[in-house]
Amino acid sequence: MCSHLLARALLASIDKARKTLHARAYTLKNRRVILVKNHFPLDKDSRVLKEVCALKKAKFSVTFLSWDRLGQGSTQGRSDIDGDKTIKLELGVHVNRFISINPILSYFLLPVWWGFVLKWLLKEEWDIAHVINFQSIIPSIIAGNLKGKPVIYEIEDTWFDQMSLPSYLRPFFLWLDKFCMHFSSAVILVDELQKTEFGGIPNKNVTVVYDSAIDLYDGTADLRNKIFTIFYAGEITKYRKLNLDKIVEAVKEIDGVQIIFAGGRDVDEIKKWAARMPNKVYFIGRVPYSEVLQQTMSSDLLFVLRDDTLPIHKYICGSKIFEAMMSGKPILVSKGTSTAMKVSKEKIGLVVDPKNIREIRSAILALKENQALYDAMGKNARKAYDNTYGWHIMERRLIDLYCVLVMEAEYEVVVDAHNVEKTKDAMLALARNRSLCERLISKSGRVK
Fold it and tell me: How far apart are CA 67 and CA 98, in angstroms?
């Protein structure tokens, strides 16, 4: 009821202040979105899948423009996630691929990829381009400016902070990235600490959309296992400095504890641990996103022990903390990271030195043996998901941003005269973005 009253009041005030601002009756249905990312296949990227699901739910038409570096073949985006806990969804997303079979050669083909993106965006009709990461943003900004269309720049990870660059190189790449932010219509961050990483974002339209988990919680995750089970899933690469060996060493000395790894890439060492300690360490290989969430809910403890010496770990928390929140599970994290700040603030886990095996062991024992502490952190985790970090909240932020860009691009308030809910959504998007209201009014040139 309050939402309807707010929408009515806001609409009335805008109409009164700006005579030339007319509400035009149309829906967001079939608005064409081009999602651009140098990653393939679509169904292996859980964050992109969640965003596509959100856009399809809001009746946007989505096309995925991707770089198939390994020649893995076509996909229509068959997903194993949705919000109805059925774990199956046919996205119906059209996929266009730039193919380069040799993954090493691909690094030298970036200008060719840019040409492919620019040509495709200039040739096709679209309403919004949603570009993920720096590798695709430059040609997209050029196309957006030439066609007068909005371009969203989503920064999932800061590529120059994934490695230890010489101090004299980082400022140049930082300037280049901020230059692209300035000329984008909006910027999506995955963590608010990215603002600190960049020393400010040169764009007034900034939205933080955490890589939260789809909500599959049903209450059964609250049950503890007879053998205290620790779970980790993700891309396992040496350059990410995950400190997996430290937690294996810690677990080795604790009775009644096992650890399960899921993922791919640099897994030879994990296979050796599993062979040497068959009752302690298990490796289940690559699993789909739905199974990651199911394994998370059936485990007792999650962990993210990334090394804070890698700059990106200080500023981006990743998805594991939100999977733990959704499942109502405590999490063990590294000190000096964005993840540690959230864990400490919400009281949902323990912060440790990722290189101190004794400290890691003590933290695991504390959560294993202190049931009251474990339960309190689990309840706090679920509360944090419901109230602040859940995907239902992130999904709303994403759609609000799209509504804002559609409205701003056409200098009109988007109203569906036949659908009260869509009208309310459009008005609430305006209510959440005061600066948009001011820009819309000022563009009329008739406000005294």
Answer: 5
Tell me phi and psi for residue 283, to 5 degrees: -125, 120
Residue of 290, 319, 303 whose CA lies nearest to 390: 319
Q: Are 127 and 31 in contact (CB under 8 A)?
A: yes
- 281 and 244 in contact (C-beta within 8 Å)? no
Q: Which domain range does residue 184 map to?
A: 24-212+392-411
- In the prediction, which pLDDT does 447 show? 34
Phi/psi for 72 (5° steps) reads -90, 5
Number of domains in the chain: 3
Give the angle 221-224-227 at the CA atoms, nearest 5°: 130
**pLDDT at residue number 128:** 95
Integer CA distances (angstroms), 181 to 93, 145, 230, 420, in order = 27, 14, 39, 35
| Burial class for 23, CB neighbours closer than 10 Å (0-12, 13-18, 19+) | middle
Which pLDDT does position 417 carry in this prediction? Answer: 46
Which tens digit of pLDDT belongs to each residue from 297-346?
A: 999 999 999 988 887 888 999 899 999 999 999 999 999 999 999 999 99
CATH number at residue 268: 3.40.50.2000
Read off the tokens for 181. Answer: 């932010």
Residue 262's pLDDT band (boundaries 50, 70, 90)?
Answer: very high
In-domain check, residue 416? no
Measured CA to CA, the distance from residue 393 to residue 309 in angstroms comes to 31
Strand spans (E) along 110-150: 128-132
> So what's the pLDDT on residue 241?
84
d(CA 379, CA 243): 28
Q: Where are the beta strands (DSSP E) in 305-378?
A: 331-334, 349-352
Tokens 């733990």 correspond to what residue? 324
Number of H helices, E strands in the chain: 17, 17
Based on the fold, state whether residues 37 and 7 are members of the same structural domain.
no
Alpha carbons 214 and 322: distance in angstroms, whole number: 9
Average pLDDT over residues 5-12: 56
